[in-house]
## 1
Amino acid sequence: MNLKIAVLSGDGIGPEVTEQAVKVLKAIAINFDHHFSFTPALVGATAIDQLGDPLPESTLDVCRANDSILFGAIGHPKYDNDPTAKVRPEQGLLKLRKELGLYANVRPVKAYESLLGKSPLKKKIIKGTDISIYRELTGGIYFGEKKISADGNTASDLCEYSRYEIERITHLAFKAAKSRRHKVTLIDKANVLESSRLWRKVVGEISKDYPEIELDYLFVDNAAMQMILNPNQFDVILTENLFGDVISDEASVIGGSIGLLASASLGDKHSMFEPIHGSYPQAEGKGIANPIASILSAAMLLDHFELNREAKMIRKAVEKSLKLNITTPDLNTKFDNITTNNVGDFIEDFINNPDDSNMNFKNMHLGQSTII
Ligand code: IPM
Ligand code: MG
């Protein structure tokens, strides 16, 4: 298959982790006889510094001209600490989602067997967790009218949803549940918010088209508690933009590190794949950023284009790296010398030599005999 991929690596650790995902995709292309091209483009604080715009028109053009997008991370402390900044890196990401119509954000959350001890939550609670979060991505409070009074002392953000915006992601969530455990949980705040009551109404109506799927409703405050009390009750979670943002960061604790969580942002025409973590500026250039979320985002990209065997190979390689402790310090209590690059190299090598024994990995892939 020929695939043209735009690479928007962004700020902070974005470029370091994205580089590993590209490396892994190149190994897949060679071993499975595909042709992938990679076209870089600027976004975020890096784009503001160079072109004065967090999402330059040239970047949008590159995104539109390619089949898909691999995104790194954006954000920089100089903007976080300045509420008066007129241009912010995050505006680039939000505009990208809106302009390309990426309305459905899919965030898988999984408790890997080999990492059960890494989560601050008890093993018996998280064991077996396998959740797919469907977060609406181009509506709600993120995109509603924003106001600030003339004296600067009163501000508001409107949370608005239309039936159509709710319908299209709801269908995707129910379809996903069909090939999973047949359950959708709608997370909302319908006891307080009018927009949430519309979600309940529309989702309830659509659920009639999917009689084999169980539909459950939870208020977001209760859901936040249930997520760490009993995450196994969840299969597909369906929710609006802001609740999905919060709940997915919370859910990442189950996996042991936010550095593991990948995501897909899907629209009718375009698709983008990105880790859910941010730009982690404190770690920039230190080689400690976990590239697995970015590598697993690349696997989601392959799945999206129905290259399922290839995606499975990446996941197998990732699981092997986790099992052998070939991980960055966020997960590694055994070895403190494994870098972002080492993890990428290991996964690349596994794809090139999937039948090698661990012994071989020790010798040829890391060159550090104490490692395994
Ligand atoms: C995410 C991020 C973004 C969001 C930020 C960077 C705008 O937190 O993708 O979850 O809030 O959607
Ligand atoms: Mg977030």
## 2
Amino acid sequence: MSRLDRIFVAGHRGMVGSAIARKLRDRGDATVITRTRSELDLADQAQVRTFFANEKIDQIYLAAAHVGGIMANNTYPAEFIYQNLMIQTNIIHEAWRAGVEKLLFLGSSCIYPRLASQPMAEDSLLTGVLEQTNEPYAIAKIAGIKLCESYNRQYGTDYRSVMPTNLYGTGDNYDAEKSHVIPGLLRRFHDAKESAASEVVIWGTGKPMREFLYVDDMAEACLHVMDLNIDTYRKNTQPMLSHINVGTGEDLTIRELAIIIADVVGYRGPIAFDSTKPDGTPRKVMDVSRLHNLGWRARIGLREGLALAYADFLTSTRR
Ligand code: GDP
């Protein structure tokens, strides 16, 4: 009897990691391995080495990361660069040492230059200056892609990378200050509706444009890319440009987003803009032709996803 593949989902308590673990368990053709932070500190090299020596892992989804929205990135830059560099370096290096052949590294669309031409294609990486508010995080994620590519080139591993656009959905962080725009606004509009507040204030000018992908779509894309035949993957990528964008390819302004969220939540009052808060990158939308060529496209539309996210927010506030 052949043994089931042992798949380690690093970061299974996070929004993306938990969606990946759910999809893998639903599929039911592998043993899914997870560890909480108190069981395994991924920033500690010795612990990570012992874990891989004992667990005989076949595949890794590297979804563990220190993440946050524009204010958190701007306020805690040291934590963002240190934690992410440590987590990914420990996992990638110790996975290679233990003979793990397949790994999928999850990055972010903020790896691209602040003024990259839009939509952003994979080959705009390292062609310009990064957005200041999250540069330390972006540098760590770029290092993660380069770690994968370097181990592939020198050691013949099959370590792949996907760069998601802004994600949202089940398991998001709904903190009003430290979260990303969708969970932050779901909370603020909900609280305003409940307290009959006189207005809701949106950070920045409302003019920046963003693209959003529901997390279950992201998890599905991750499994798709991990499972691609190696020849198909290599034919559609290059050894030193191996990452794949994951998104919808469609964007909207923060103002337009706010209006849809207000509608989904049922808030009918006025919306104001606080232009003393940072806007971040003016526009961020992915060129997803590489992913489309590889046979995957997003399925969950923004309004449908926001309704699912609001339901998740309501559940999480009741817990
Ligand atoms: P970014 O894509 O890295 O800039 O991440 P965010 O999701 O944190 O922010 C996206 C855009 O939404 C930025 O232009 C923010 O200024 C704007 N924004 C408006 N209101 C909020 C809010 O309540 N929370 C956050 N995080 N961003 C907001």
